Q: What sequence folds into this?
Protein backbone atom coordinates (compact mmCIF):
# COMPACT_ATOMS: atom_id res chain seq x y z
CA UNK A 1 0.00 0.00 0.00
CA UNK A 2 1.26 3.40 -0.97
CA UNK A 3 1.77 5.94 1.75
CA UNK A 4 3.04 8.96 -0.21
CA UNK A 5 0.79 10.56 -2.78
CA UNK A 6 0.83 13.20 -5.47
CA UNK A 7 -1.27 16.30 -4.91
CA UNK A 8 -3.98 14.99 -7.25
CA UNK A 9 -4.15 11.64 -5.44
CA UNK A 10 -4.20 13.38 -2.07
CA UNK A 11 -7.07 15.55 -3.34
CA UNK A 12 -9.11 12.48 -4.26
CA UNK A 13 -8.34 10.80 -0.95
CA UNK A 14 -9.17 13.89 1.12
CA UNK A 15 -12.46 14.34 -0.75
CA UNK A 16 -13.43 10.69 -0.14
CA UNK A 17 -12.54 10.96 3.54
CA UNK A 18 -14.59 14.17 3.89
CA UNK A 19 -17.66 12.69 2.16
CA UNK A 20 -17.45 9.45 4.17
CA UNK A 21 -16.92 11.21 7.49
CA UNK A 22 -19.72 13.71 6.89
CA UNK A 23 -22.11 10.92 5.86
CA UNK A 24 -21.30 8.84 8.93
CA UNK A 25 -21.66 11.89 11.19
CA UNK A 26 -25.08 12.65 9.69
CA UNK A 27 -26.23 9.06 10.16
CA UNK A 28 -24.90 8.90 13.72
CA UNK A 29 -26.67 12.10 14.72
CA UNK A 30 -30.01 11.02 13.27
CA UNK A 31 -30.38 7.48 14.59
CA UNK A 32 -33.14 7.53 17.20
CA UNK A 33 -31.76 6.66 20.62
CA UNK A 34 -34.50 4.06 21.16
CA UNK A 35 -33.23 2.27 18.04
CA UNK A 36 -29.75 1.71 19.44
CA UNK A 37 -31.12 0.82 22.90
CA UNK A 38 -28.88 3.26 24.70
CA UNK A 39 -29.53 5.14 27.87
CA UNK A 40 -27.12 8.02 27.75
CA UNK A 41 -26.44 10.32 30.69
CA UNK A 42 -27.89 13.81 30.33
CA UNK A 43 -24.92 15.79 28.97
CA UNK A 44 -22.65 12.98 27.80
CA UNK A 45 -23.24 13.71 24.13
CA UNK A 46 -21.45 17.08 24.31
CA UNK A 47 -18.07 15.35 23.98
CA UNK A 48 -19.37 13.41 20.96
CA UNK A 49 -20.58 16.66 19.35
CA UNK A 50 -17.25 18.35 20.09
CA UNK A 51 -15.18 15.49 18.64
CA UNK A 52 -17.53 14.86 15.72
CA UNK A 53 -17.53 18.44 14.49
CA UNK A 54 -13.85 18.88 15.27
CA UNK A 55 -13.13 15.91 13.01
CA UNK A 56 -15.46 17.26 10.34
CA UNK A 57 -13.67 20.62 10.32
CA UNK A 58 -10.30 18.84 10.19
CA UNK A 59 -11.42 16.85 7.13
CA UNK A 60 -12.96 19.88 5.43
CA UNK A 61 -9.87 22.03 5.99
CA UNK A 62 -7.70 19.22 4.64
CA UNK A 63 -9.74 19.00 1.47
CA UNK A 64 -9.78 22.80 1.11
CA UNK A 65 -6.02 23.02 1.58
CA UNK A 66 -5.34 20.40 -1.10
CA UNK A 67 -7.81 22.11 -3.47
CA UNK A 68 -6.08 25.45 -2.89
CA UNK A 69 -2.66 23.91 -3.60
CA UNK A 70 -3.96 22.41 -6.84
CA UNK A 71 -5.47 25.78 -7.79
CA UNK A 72 -2.15 27.53 -7.11
CA UNK A 73 -0.31 25.08 -9.37
CA UNK A 74 -2.89 25.45 -12.14
CA UNK A 75 -2.64 29.22 -11.85
CA UNK A 76 1.15 29.08 -12.18
CA UNK A 77 0.86 26.87 -15.26
CA UNK A 78 -1.59 29.25 -16.92
CA UNK A 79 0.27 32.35 -15.67
CA UNK A 80 -2.89 33.81 -14.22
CA UNK A 81 -2.57 36.26 -11.41
CA UNK A 82 -6.13 37.56 -11.52
CA UNK A 83 -8.94 37.21 -9.08
CA UNK A 84 -9.72 33.64 -8.19
CA UNK A 85 -12.05 32.13 -5.70
CA UNK A 86 -10.30 30.74 -2.63
CA UNK A 87 -11.84 28.46 -0.11
CA UNK A 88 -11.05 30.00 3.22
CA UNK A 89 -11.35 29.14 6.85
CA UNK A 90 -14.26 31.55 7.16
CA UNK A 91 -16.19 29.80 4.42
CA UNK A 92 -15.67 26.47 6.21
CA UNK A 93 -16.72 27.92 9.56
CA UNK A 94 -19.85 29.51 8.07
CA UNK A 95 -20.91 26.36 6.22
CA UNK A 96 -20.36 24.09 9.21
CA UNK A 97 -22.02 26.47 11.69
CA UNK A 98 -25.13 26.61 9.50
CA UNK A 99 -24.97 22.84 9.04
CA UNK A 100 -24.68 22.26 12.80
CA UNK A 101 -27.85 24.30 13.42
CA UNK A 102 -29.70 22.44 10.66
CA UNK A 103 -28.38 19.16 12.05
CA UNK A 104 -29.80 19.98 15.48
CA UNK A 105 -33.18 20.95 13.99
CA UNK A 106 -33.32 17.83 11.80
CA UNK A 107 -32.96 15.63 14.88
CA UNK A 108 -36.44 16.62 16.05
CA UNK A 109 -38.35 14.50 13.46
CA UNK A 110 -36.38 11.37 14.46
CA UNK A 111 -37.37 11.57 18.13
CA UNK A 112 -34.24 13.28 19.33
CA UNK A 113 -34.08 16.81 20.60
CA UNK A 114 -32.41 20.01 19.46
CA UNK A 115 -30.19 21.52 22.12
CA UNK A 116 -28.35 24.84 22.15
CA UNK A 117 -25.58 23.27 24.24
CA UNK A 118 -25.04 20.65 21.52
CA UNK A 119 -24.69 23.43 18.93
CA UNK A 120 -22.18 25.24 21.16
CA UNK A 121 -20.19 22.01 21.54
CA UNK A 122 -20.29 21.69 17.73
CA UNK A 123 -18.94 25.22 17.30
CA UNK A 124 -16.16 24.77 19.83
CA UNK A 125 -15.26 21.54 18.03
CA UNK A 126 -15.09 23.46 14.74
CA UNK A 127 -12.56 25.89 16.18
CA UNK A 128 -10.43 23.14 17.72
CA UNK A 129 -10.62 21.09 14.49
CA UNK A 130 -9.38 24.07 12.45
CA UNK A 131 -6.53 24.68 14.91
CA UNK A 132 -5.65 20.98 14.92
CA UNK A 133 -5.43 20.92 11.12
CA UNK A 134 -3.33 24.08 11.06
CA UNK A 135 -0.88 22.64 13.59
CA UNK A 136 -0.70 19.17 12.04
CA UNK A 137 -0.54 20.26 8.38
CA UNK A 138 3.29 20.28 8.20
CA UNK A 139 3.42 16.69 9.47
CA UNK A 140 0.64 15.57 7.14
CA UNK A 141 2.50 17.10 4.19
CA UNK A 142 5.78 15.49 5.23
CA UNK A 143 4.21 12.08 5.79
CA UNK A 144 1.80 11.77 2.87
CA UNK A 145 2.70 14.21 0.09
CA UNK A 146 5.36 13.36 -2.46
CA UNK A 147 7.71 16.31 -2.86
CA UNK A 148 8.37 17.70 -6.35
CA UNK A 149 11.98 16.48 -6.08
CA UNK A 150 10.80 12.91 -5.44
CA UNK A 151 8.45 13.13 -8.42
CA UNK A 152 11.27 14.27 -10.72
CA UNK A 153 13.62 11.55 -9.44
CA UNK A 154 10.98 8.86 -10.00
CA UNK A 155 10.36 9.99 -13.59
CA UNK A 156 14.05 9.81 -14.55
A:
Amino acid sequence: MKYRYTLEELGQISRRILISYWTLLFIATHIPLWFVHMDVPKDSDKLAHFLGYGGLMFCLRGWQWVAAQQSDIQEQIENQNGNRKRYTLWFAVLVLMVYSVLDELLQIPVYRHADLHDAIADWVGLVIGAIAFYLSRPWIVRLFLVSPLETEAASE
About this structure: The two ends are 22 Å apart (CA to CA). The chain has one domain: 7-155. The helical segments are 7-30, 45-78, 89-106, 116-144, 148-155.
